[in-house]
Amino acid sequence: MPISPFLADTFALARAGGWSRRQMLAALTGGTAALMLPARSQAAAKELVFASWGGDEIKSLTRAYGKSYETATGTSVVFDGTGPTEGAIRTLVDSGDVTWDLCDADGFTAMRLGASGHLSAIDYKTVDAAKIMSPFAFTHGAGGYTYSYVLAFDTERFAARPPMSWKDFFDTKNYPGGRAVYRWMNGALEAAMMAQGGDKPYPIDLTVALNRLSRLKPNLQTWETGEQVQQMFTDKTISMACLWHTRAVALAKETEGKIAFTWAGGILYPGVWVVPKGNPGGIDAFKLIAHMQDAGRQIEFTNLQRVGPANPEATAAMPKALRDYDPTQPDNLSQQVIVDSKWWADNFDKARTEFADMLQRS
Question: Which residues of the chain have pLDDT under 70?
């Protein structure tokens, strides 16, 4: 279940901005080890293995987290970029041979894996729950960053009257053109519910949401990476998309305003740090999470990747130049809804099946 291509996309944006592989590795790890080898194959140095989202580039975190943690503790952070999917974490823990100490997951994944006994409960004596915006301090996961699904649109196509709501997104008569939503349906189901009226999409009525989405066919497309949806806009095969705010920000900049987005109706999601049960580093994984809660380090992460922070102190201290990109800023957050991770934890499998069936029906 590849739910977090999102973080991978932030690194794709960095590469598009001219960062070389060497620069990426140096900046993101701050000089700490950043290898795609499992922990067993590393030298017997004191280390923590952080599983993030891979590919040719290591999907790690910013230089502040890696370098400063090693400086403070003497423990290096090794980044494994093979991708901590829900299934991968389950398999690893079930094998009894756990090599990961920390993983990047979604809130609902943390709830599902916590309920099945595959994650350790967060040690909130070490991790400060007050430094995690509500409701992203989960029993089995600690919010580390934030991002939103937003409405992006072609300003040339809709110069006279730009779309400003999900109701407009689903109005193909007054706003013609193709539409694009995430292949794994996060954001899309909420958008469909809000198009019915109101700003409270939960609990999502799958029948209502999927019927609304089906009416966009045959002009409904799905995307899995930020590059894909960007190409759809370039090729003019779509006029609107429900996509990650980080990619929408980049599109607005790169197209000099030809593509724009609105925070109105955005859906705020967390990136969550989870600890697989039986992790080799033990409590040190929670010490790393606590280190990453520092407001200054989270602001640096926002500066580099355009994600939002999870620590309210970072939101309050965000430099003015970054506030337009931060979904947690009061003016931006007030226009959005916060994801109901419990609904997704309870309904993801059913939603995935029914969404796929809807796409396949003629």
Answer: 1-45, 54-64, 362
